[in-house]
């Protein structure tokens, strides 16, 4: 076995698949074209609630090239699903506007599109309710929230402590519905043959798609293969199987031919998830020195009538700051809307906007610097569980960020800095995200030529997973990355958790390290390399289940400088600095990309992103990137991401915490706090549009 003393984890290795991407050889789901391929175009409901009485398909079937029109009367039957969103074309019920009610399949995409448009649908329309409001009579307390967290938590007597506190903040913050818009829309190519079902799918988790589709079509998982070689982003929307992949498989089964289905950008606003809008009331009580005596954080959200999904909005408040009296709650109402789902840093992103905005308001009420206020309320252990933190370097991030940003020179007076016709302000907010790890499996093989092949059904959604796993494997095998080939993106490989929750590298890397360690042990025992090579495998289920009891979180500090035009109210982010403590950084090059990507998305959250619901229409009005605005290059003037060194032995063999999501957390609050510092206007409902600043 070739050995090397150089550690590759921690080096800025170029992406191992870089040339494939820049030369166009990397194949995404829609680029696979099996023989006899047909095209599918879904048909969406044009009512928000009711039933499909009938669909007149005669005109569509006369269009040249049309193969079939599939709806609930003739669709293949699926097994019952816990997630009713996956029961595609199984009943006449319409739960929200945009729900799939039919699909046209044709020889060409153009013919399928024409057929879909020609369908005449007769509905039994019913009154609908799509408005989230704080006094909605349908609000209820769910049993759990996303990721299995308890719905509510309470310690001490927060009401009495709040009443007794000499300094109090009581404010309501709101965030709008936001839609995931990855560069690559959702797409699937489905093919049935004697061996079962093969899917080329744009997904964050091939193993999860395989398990779900196998159950829906009542076949062994071994008869389903999901290939996701390259994925053009997901931001959570591709984390779990959704209606489009089911519809593609169902259509292919019906016409007994391979079928290609791509979700147009406009349809993604109904069928691929979104971030729930929130209404959050935050109450903070503190003594004269700014030390918190009470925290109350209450969130109101929405879900659909067919599936309960409750974002864990107030859970970051449970671990952020020391206070003897605390309460956090979640309440939800079922509306006639699509089901919300994961969107980058679910829970933490909207929840920390409210908490960190309230902390800024408290700092002003106390007359204490916002950085110092957070330092004064640093807990010794997890305030919720009492468990020790595996590591917590929030204070280090705040201090380092303040130094780099030039925070000490800040005049705290709102509206004091005017440059020309632009008011300049600065703001700070903290960031956090849990350090998750899930069981996964991997294999490592020493090939007859002396090279190594590592296999795991991980997914690279543009984050550089292939590259960092190559580095991790090279170090575990004590060889160099150019001697290691990592195979991912295929459910036929050893099963792995999805790419999401900032747990991919931690979960997959653990399995890869253990498989490589097992291979090295085999090689040391075998002596000469057999002609067929050697292979070892690992399953981390027991290791993950038996890990020590620690509170595991990444932390960070976001600093923003904002300019607001005094005549137009237009806000521009002039500088963004993020300082993070996220364990060991495997690859500084890909890490920086992840951090600044999250921060850019946080900037977008603060200033632009907003899905607008029309209550009469029963649907979101802005359904494309011309009307749903996201941050572009001109909006990102100066953005910097750095990290502090952190050695945490309680996480995983690599010492990593995950970095995909923490970059977005806190950014919107830092920008809103900077806007207040610039103008004296406190924006509590996102986004920060110019009309809100033209007072």
Automatic annotation (TrEMBL):
Q: Where is this region: Disordered?
A: 130-158
Q: Does the keyword Oxidoreductase apply?
A: yes
Q: Where is the composition biased (Basic and acidic residues)?
A: 130-144
InterPro entries associated with the record: Ald_Oxase/Xan_DH_a/b, Ald_Oxase/Xan_DH_a/b_sf, Ald_Oxase/xanthine_DH-like, AldOxase/xan_DH_MoCoBD1, AldOxase/xan_DH_MoCoBD2, AldOxase/xan_DH_Mopterin-bd_sf
Q: Which residues form the Aldehyde oxidase/xanthine dehydrogenase a/b hammerhead domain?
A: 23-127
UniProt key word Oxidoreductase: yes
Q: Which keywords are on file for this protein?
A: Molybdenum, Oxidoreductase
Q: PANTHER family per the record?
A: ALDEHYDE OXIDASE 1-RELATED, XANTHINE DEHYDROGENASE
What this protein is called in its record is Xanthine dehydrogenase family protein molybdopterin-binding subunit
Q: What is the source species?
A: Nonomuraea roseola
